[in-house]
Specification:
Two copies of one chain form a homodimer. With about 200 residues, the first copy, chain A, is mostly helical. In chain A, about 65% of the residues lie in helices and about 5% in strands. In chain A, strand 1 and strand 2 form a beta hairpin. Chains A, B: One of its GO terms (molecular function) is 5'-deoxynucleotidase activity.
């Protein structure tokens, strides 16, 4: 029996409800629990909406938002690979590619290939839109760690140098003015001080 | 001391983290817990992205997505008013308007007024974009109830007539082809049958 386009679309929308059960390492800002990947995706879309002026290159904010809305859907099959979780390497890329094929493949053909392409563009991080999206995907958890007094850095015993190495390149490439703020925050954090305020922002 | 634009923007993005702690009446599809308003907003944005062809009028999908991303932010101050929670009436509108003024007012002026306008447009439900956004905001919890064997309808003792009255107008106005599917689901549900499949979709 053939499914109609609408049946496939509704099947996809039901399937991705599971993203709400994928738990990330990062806490909520009030530290009451860990963040899940669905609400993280919402928050990142809001970051893109609010902070688009800090993108390094010319970006299409609506494409960035679409990219961020679906960037973590693969975690439904592949799980979340934490930034401080050790070497994920080849295994991660393969698992996520398989997940993308299965999940976006639930949609009718034009949407399936459209969203698969958008996800692949995000992963490759070569276009201005993807570079900005990737920068925000690093910036948001860094902000959480700074404003929760350490978050996953404290949990995983991460050093200042590791923070620079793991967050710096992506944020610097896609949103250098946000990285300038991060550098101040991180320096203060590892000096045992609070986040303070970014010195020059607007 | 004056805050820079970036400080205000980051303050807003931190403040709206609290939307992750606003719990709605609707469950997740796996019934493990109630949905929160942040992940609900993500899911609705995905509904808009996937289902835009079912809008009644010509819509700008990206505007609809932006509207849905921020439509519930007011709940941080005003709380969630459940659809089956009895008469909210004037109190709700006033509380939400105050919340919108405070929360969007955290942003620098151009964004503050831009997002306040977009939220007001959603609330008024007069434009094609807002009508479609409102339709999805009713369609998603209806789908959840049908696919969880009753959800909030069972909890609150809601009848078929009440479902038609509370969900029908908004969905019919913004997405009549989706309402046609809902009518079949709802009829089957109240006849003690499962959701089945929509008869004609694509």
């Amino acid at each position: 029996m053939q499914s109609t386009a609408l049946e496939k679309q509704l099947g996809f929308l039901r399937e991705i409800d599971r993203l709400k059960t994928v738990v990330r390492q990062s806490p909520l800002l009030n530290r009451s629990r860990k963040e899940n990947s669905a609400e993280h995706s919402w928050h990142l879309a809001m970051y893109a909406l609010i902070l688009n002026e800090y993108a390094d290159g010319p970006v299409n904010t609506d494409r960035v938002i679409r990219m961020l809305l679906l960037h973590d859907v693969v975690e439904i099959d592949a799980g979340d690979f934490p930034i401080h979780g050790g070497s994920a390497g080849e295994g991660q890329a393969e698992q996520e590619a398989r997940a993308a094929a299965r999940l976006f493949g639930l949609l009718p053909p034009p949407q399936a290939s459209e969203f698969l392409s958008l996800w692949q563009e995000f992963e490759r991080a070569e276009t201005e839109d993807a570079k900005f999206a990737k920068a925000l995907d690093r910036f948001q958890p860094l902000l959480i760690n700074v404003f929760t007094g350490g978050g996953t850095w404290t949990e995983s015993g991460v050093s200042l140098e590791q923070v620079h190495a793991r967050y710096g390149p992506a944020i610097q490439q896609g949103a250098p003015r946000l990285w300038a703020v991060c550098e101040q925050w991180v320096a203060r954090h590892f000096a045992g001080q609070g986040p303070g305020m970014p010195e020059q922002g607007g």
